[in-house]
Amino acid sequence: MFVSLIGIVMLTPVFQPEQNAEIDDLVSSKYISTMRIYLIRTIYSIIAIVLFICIFSGYMSIRDCDVDLRLMMGTLFDAIFLGSLGMITSSLCGNTVIGYMIPIVFYTLNYGMGSKLKNYYLFSMTIGKFGPKIWMLITGILFITASIIFRGIRKKYVPFFS
Amino acid sequence: MLFLQELKKIVFSVSYVLFLIVIVFALNSQGVFHFSGGRISRPQPGGNYGTKHEEIPEIIMPAALEGLWGEFCQNHYVTYPIGLIKNVRLNDREQAEIAEIISEITGIDKDTILGAQADMADVGNNEFVIGMDGNMQIDSDGNIVFSQEDNANDTNDITDIKETMITVRSDMDYSEFRDLMQRVDDILGGGSDYSAKSLIGFGTVPVSYEEAVQRYDLCLSRDKITGGYARLFSDYAVAMVMSLLPVFPAVLMCMKDRQAKMTEIIYTRKISSAKIIVCRYLAIMTAVMIPVIILSYVSNSSVWGIYDGAELDYFAPLKYDLGWIMPGIMIAAAVGMCLTELTNTPIALAVQGFWWLLDVNAGFRSVSDGYAIFRLAPRHNAGEMSYFRTQDYIDNFRRLTANRLLFAGLSMLLIAVTILVYEAKRKGILYGNFNFKKAISGIRSRRNQSEA
Amino acid sequence: MNQAVDIRNSIEISNLNKFYGKKQALQNVSLSIHQGMFGLLGRNGAGKTTLMRTLATLLQKKDGEITVCGIPIENAKEVRRIIGYLPQEFSMYPSMSVAETMNYLGILSGLSSAERKERAGILLKKVNLEEHKNKKIKALSGGMKRRLGIAQALLNNPKVLIVDEPTAGLDPEERVRFRNLLSEIAEDRIVILSTHIVGDIEATCEDIAILDDGKVLYNGTVDDLLNTAQGKVFTKAVERQELPKLKQVLTITGMHTQGKKVYVRFLSDKGAVDAEVSEPNIEDAYMLYLSKNGSYTSLGEEEFGGGI
Question: Which pLDDT score, from 0 to 100, does residue B366 have?
């Protein structure tokens, strides 16, 4: 339930090194496009999330808890969604700390609002529903894609953000 | 003057706007701007007034036994040792101990119990089967549903045992029962429903008409109605957001100097570290409290019209804002500032987040847990349906006061630490060698900057 | 009487040692800095910034004594009252305007509202930023930021101004303007200027110290420094092909090409054949000190402005 928080930790800081304007200028002027760099970072962050979930699940099963692939996948999709919230916020605001705020608050709301979140309820598996996880995976991927694209093109097309 | 400048820095920023939106959204999700209960009115005889928990042995003992038997059969116990849910499975030796305890309670032979458990466990993992005269399942809304089953025609051994097991030994003494249950809790590693202080949770009794009237009268006399709503607002506000969110403006504020590369220009100025830190802290508190006070009045005033003519306490929201909510904001902001200045990283977000997570899981278990002295977010969580449970609030008021004062005091302590850390950084006692790493790479490089 | 006046208006450093872990950043540094412009010359990593930051109360010394206008450095609060510091790398809140920044920093300097307004107005005028006072920091050029840096350092009318590599990255015109500004400021206070650009020293300083590897190699007036290099600087015309060989044997301090010939300027203790004695400049003297102390290794021609 709280394992999915690792998504916030791993994915939100993908844009952090380029928060500094000078580094951003330097990196943006290189041959390799920044979007590719962000994509690489995103991929290895997701790999790290998967590893973390596997290790944690391994530990849980050693301690005689019921862990199955479904549970692990659901947690992974949750983590990706939470992380993607962080990515899109930090991408739009240019600040990683603000980026952390949205997914953390979303997580806290799941305690209060619960099933009202319907297809975006993080703890849906406790009531036996896996459907929301698919929604979250798809939305997560969309957010990640949007945040990377935005970060890549903003200098050219959006003077306000540069 | 510095205070106003710092306040300006916070308020005129994108992050603050986002912060406000998040607070409004989060509070709205709790329904505090449109209380759904409708006007509370004097209870009429013959109605349903909800339930409460009382330490009535005749009710507690069978209910607790039933709960224990169910978990014992599946060897699946749910506990909350540190506030987060933990699913416990016991080994053979431990299960035997539990069987022994059940044997003592029911008077049935231990081996028979173990045998019955082995049979019951074959029923399957996906069904929650408790007790002999009912099946417990979880429906699609996440509610636990009891459905009655008629086992009267079943004549095999297990049924016989089941039918006998329901009962607690007639000569069972309640204090002995409590001790036995505490042993169960110890075996389970703590945090179960069977611990001495949680046992009362099994003592569900309906609220009587007289009690309901008493509650209603208290609500009018002590809470003056608005107090109850204000309390509900504070409960949700602090639990859901205000014990966590203020850490964000605090972290942002402290990281701003470093990000703008202004630290040294500020460090070498005449102003004392105490003044800088205190002004910044007060600015954060103000920036967070003002919207909270406004929102608390928006929430509270939404019911003023409904209670036209009644005697209302219009200062109730303010009292709760300052007494209940403010210490929560104080501690979150103080943790944010202290850890950020200490580490130059936003680790405070993780620390406060983790504390919030533990706390929110621990606080909902019972009324006394809700008012525990170290509770970051005190819980009362009683709305119109229970007439705001004013008596519980009054009973726990002292503890609440102690709790809130403790957190206010802790916050000030953290701010004092922050001042010391800041001064140490200014003098190079802390992080003084940091720049050396930059300098050393300059030694190795022999490239000059060119003269034009 | 003179002594007493001196201490109240000078910085006295004696036997200052500073370590970064095992590495000694400052070794037995002793200096006496008086009113006017004082130059601190040295290579990257020589310890200039460390010394300046120690004077600015930003670093702790291991041992030694420092007094700033009579105030021991341990009394950080009092020292901060009378100093202004412009670090090498700095910036300001990007979304604040020039005027707002001056106001904010003025509050941090303990100035009253009236004082802030007055001082900010005068200083912005002095550094030629008055017409840009409503511009946001992120919209300022590098040179403008530096000038704002000086202005903010002078807000509290400090007795001591510590400026760390102020002209790095400025264009020639801005650099000249900056030097003039500093000279003006140095008329009635102590200004300590650290740089590795010799031209800065030449233009403005009377007294200098050369730091290398944490040690003071030279401390005195510019004139005396030049005298030490008198008769040791030579110029010779050579063919371009000879250059690589010459670089191996001579301590070259400058070159310029004219047609097919290259005029090489070099140092020699023992005199030189077929070479003219030249009037030494600060750069020559500086190189002489570095080479004498074994710190000077072979230099590439690109390190001198007049090279290829």
Answer: 66
